[in-house]
């Protein structure tokens, strides 16, 4: 009997994680042989985003101890658990000679000095992911063979996949794990691009920063940058230290020494502030009980097709608030006036946003700085304006300095309690969609955009060092802050940037969108995704007439849905830009992480489908 054939398009962390789950669940093949074709022009394991061939300045925004590709005893799945080292444990074992792994010479110093709380370079992450891939290959059962294809998929006819070089692969099943969808400019970006071309200006639409060529950005020129998140942090480093500048440690803090090749970056965004830095401490109190208020039972009790802010947000906000105060009360009992058991009982009885809850918190938590204000957290510049750019810059510097101090001081570990509650919420969100407990329009505008943006801003920010560098660059005159509600006008032959935080504007001949493209099947730039779209084999997720831009998959089993809403029996897809709305392929250890549960479920579904013919 000929072996079964599976094509996995996308061999980054997600594709390799599913491969590991296919290996772990191989008993479902019933003894049949399986050939897995990994299709990706980039190295398996690391893929495009984590490949070694990128700037050594770019780092992960996760600590080494918070990155793993392996399941553990907390992961609730049907398949076997196969433990393995986190990135930090892997580094320790490599240093001790317990693991043999290829680590490039220019990564040896980092490997030697890295601590569990270090933020590794993406290059070192690449070495870990490459080792994970080789380990998965070494652990394959005899009936599974893997064939690498360092090429892009171009088209598919039935189940025959054609690669860009012309090679054909007859696949009994297809899994699409392409990560975030790259996209062509939207209507607004296209209008700006046309204006820029007409007037000889430079415009860089949304894209993955490490893949964009910024060489044409001239030294000393004023550049408008729209976006203050992780993409901006990468851009900031590439256009400063990446051009020969240096950060020097001084007694009074970090100082930037320019090379003279830097542009001047005028940055603004909707909030007008950078993402919060990652906390540098651990929880101090009792283990958190999560989820507590936003669990499966609570979701099932929500009204069908409810509104996010009216129906769902009160539960999520209560979960975040619970995580925060549970850590404050048990980790820092000297700063509260009520015993935790009594507070927890009263807290559980009250709605999140009501006078009684506010009174309970004010009575129990005397210091205003110890109270969680989610509205102020989300909009720190709301209702605040300044008479000049200099006044606003001083305020924003103080804001960033206060954030750095708070995220470095274990006295404020309650922030980490809220962070952990956010991770718990992320794990419950697919049930919200599957159970039809959110209106599609609210899902797209409020859940997909606002909530995920808020999560990234609070919980997925840069290493603290990056914000220290931001302050040093502002002090050196290389970065300038434009404030909240940033606006860009197309004025004659210039871009004009301004904001709501202070009067005045900045003219520039270059505009950079410092963000990833939003999910958009209609605007997908990947050739294989476009082919599937144009042939009607995949579609833009549409629920009750509302399109989200994501690849439409059936939430129950991750099968691809075509333009008519029909599930393909042998085609599957996983990733952040599918209906599953999953987070990163790797995650924190011992968190029962959603991606691991999805990976195991889709691997078992594929193997069962294949074995049943």
TrEMBL record:
Signal peptide positions (record): none
Q: Name one Pfam family in it.
A: NAD_binding_9
Q: Where does the FAD-dependent urate hydroxylase HpyO/Asp monooxygenase CreE-like FAD/NAD(P)-binding domain start and stop, copy by copy?
A: 7-180
Q: Which PANTHER family match?
A: BLR0577 PROTEIN
Protein name from the UniProt record: FAD/NAD(P)-binding protein
The record lists the organism as: Amycolatopsis acididurans
